[in-house]
Amino acid sequence: MNTKIIAIIFCGILLILVVDLVRREKLTFKYAFGWIAISVLGLFFALFEDFLFNIAFFFGFAVPSNFIFFCMLSALVLLSLLMTIFLCQQNNRNDKIAQKLGILESEIGQIKKDKDAK
User: Fold this and answer.
1) Exposure pattern of 44-58 as b/e (b: 16+ CB <10 Å)?
2) Rounded mean pLDDT of the chain?
3) In the prediction, which pLDDT does 83 show?
4) 15, 47, 51, 84: most buried by Cβ count inside 10 Å?
5) From CA 20, how far away is CA 26, in angstroms rounded?
6) Is pTM, for the whole model, over 0.90?
């Protein structure tokens, strides 16, 4: 089977899978955007491989497959960085919620203590 067809099928399946996950609300668009961008770029380069060859040679890659590996590795590093940022933001939100919950529990305990004292 031709690698061009395999790339088109793989990128198409990835795109459909990510869109379906967003549609079923298993994945938010904020997190899905990177995967959608990668699959669309993969489809674009699979369909217009001459453009891929020209870009690869422009950036000094002797073999376009090396350029593809470099781009995919760079994309995965970027996605990992974005996921780390989102994870840190979520961790900060969890800390704030835990602190607010502790304050509320303390206030409820104080109200119960005052009520029992009367």
Assistant:
1) ebbeeeeebeeebee
2) 90
3) 85
4) 15
5) 9
6) no
